[in-house]
Amino acid sequence: YTINLQAHQSGYFSSSYGVLDPVDEFSYDEQQEDEIVTLTHNVSARGFRVGATQAFDNAKNFVVGRTGISGKINSEFVTTGNCDSWVLKTQSETIDRVNATYSVSEIYEMDPSGCNPVVVKYNCTLESGIQDDFVRGTIQGEVNGGKTGLMSDVRTRFEQVDIYDLFTGSISQSNLDFFKIPVSYNSEEVTAATNGERKITFNATYDNDNLFDDNNNTFFQYGSGPCYFDYNVEISHDETTEVATVSLNGNVKARGNLQERIKSANEFLNNDLSTGDNGTGRLRDLANEVYQGISGDLGINGYPLNIFPNSLSIVSGNKGAVSITTTFDNSDRIFDSKIRGSSYNIDVKTALPIYKPRASVNENGVFGIYETNVYNREVVNVNGQIIPDHRASSLVKDSTIEASGSGIVNTIRTALVSGESKRLESDTSSRPETDGSLSFGNSYSFNSSGLYAKANTKLSTT
């Protein structure tokens, strides 16, 4: 048999006797986007037995004794200035007891610009499409204290970060003016149990919709903070009745957190949209502006829209959104801010010549129809309703309602009751206490003999 022996002189290893293939290296990397410097420290060794100390223990003792960055070699190419505040991000170890090897890899990060023991990292993206009204940008990042930092320091650093400034400074798009309040925002405090890091993650989305800005909001002529009304208008015209109908649909858009959006949207609704003419004047102005501007081009008689809408729906969503749908028309109504609606109908029974049958005195069973040259009385029935703005209790018994009803009756009577021997057949009216609406009915009769041409039709006598 053959025996091969190998000996290692203790002087060869200085203070690290008992290890082979020792490695203790530092490498630097600089991330240009967020100016973060990364330092990677790798330490490894393979041990052999020395006396009573096992080979693996020698390798581990060597590596553990060199972890950390107290003995780091400064970089000649990556400059960090006078800053030396490194944050331990990860630390991993590799163990091989069979081959008596042990290694540790450490990754540190540092932000030279802030020189803070807490690192801020982020990245930004822009999104735009031909179908989009606005350009959107997103920032995602974290405030990281590493494994050894304090969560209190992370929170303090996070409160100091201006996310909007980070975003606008990163995109470098001078032609895009992003609104300061984000479309969406989220932050989360990560517990120490997650990879052992103490950090806060954040993400925010911005767009260049500056209609929220009061100083720049000149198109809509009003504003209640970070809020505006985004709406569209549709116009339809009935050629038969010559009634134009204008539908307005829109949403109150607000910015901020949920509490701020709810507050801003409600204030905007109450202070800017629900104003004038019992809460619908502003909406009517918006609808009427479009209607008057286009009615001439469409050949529509430009009678103004009625003060009160035909329908109105206001729905508040669960995320601070307010949806508004309303319809106005220019149908024939009483145009008064105290009257929400009016309607009437006319029933005319025209005067007809009276014919009488007469039996023949000469022949049994033969009758003759004779014209009497007398007309029956023409009857005009007028029925209608006046609905006040019953949301205001002081208007329930306002004399304007009765006067409006009388105005309708008198107008129709003057126009249609124009014969001789006019007579009022009936006059009824009722006005309940519940809503103050007035229902009325009048019936007139008169002689219209001679108003109609004599019929030439000859009736049979058989």
Given the structure, what is the number of helices?
6
Order of helices and strands: EEHEEEEHHEEEEHHEEEEEEHEE
Task: Give the overall shape.
Answer: rod-shaped
Radius of gyration, in Å, reads 45 Å
Helix content: 10-25%
Mean pLDDT score:
81
The major beta sheet can be summarized as: 4 strands, antiparallel
Oligomer: single chain
* Domain module count: 4
For the terminal residues, how far apart are their CA atoms? 154 Å
Q: How many distinct beta strands?
A: 18
The order of strands across the largest sheet is 1-2-4-3
Unreliable segments of 5+ consecutive residues:
450-462
Strand content: 35-45%
Q: In terms of structural class, how would the helical and strand content be classed?
A: alpha+beta
What do these coordinates show?
This protein has helices at 55-64, 151-160, 163-171, 258-273, 281-298, 399-416, and strands at residues 19-31, 36-47, 87-96, 101-110, 119-127, 136-144, 184-190, 199-207, 227-238, 243-254, 311-316, 322-329, 339-349, 353-359, 367-375, 378-388, 420-430, 438-447. With 462 residues, the chain is α+β, with helices and mostly antiparallel strands. The protein has a four-stranded antiparallel β-sheet with strand order 1-2-4-3. A four-stranded antiparallel β-sheet has the order 5-6-8-7. The longest helix is centred in the middle third of the chain and has 18 residues, at 281-298. The termini are far apart. The relative contact order is 0.06.
Write the layout of secondary structure elements.
Blueprint: E1 19-31, E2 36-47, H1 55-64, E3 87-96, E4 101-110, E5 119-127, E6 136-144, H2 151-160, H3 163-171, E7 184-190, E8 199-207, E9 227-238, E10 243-254, H4 258-273, H5 281-298, E11 311-316, E12 322-329, E13 339-349, E14 353-359, E15 367-375, E16 378-388, H6 399-416, E17 420-430, E18 438-447
Antiparallel strand pairs: 1-2, 2-4, 3-4, 5-6, 6-8, 7-8, 9-10, 10-12, 11-12, 13-16, 14-15, 16-18, 17-18
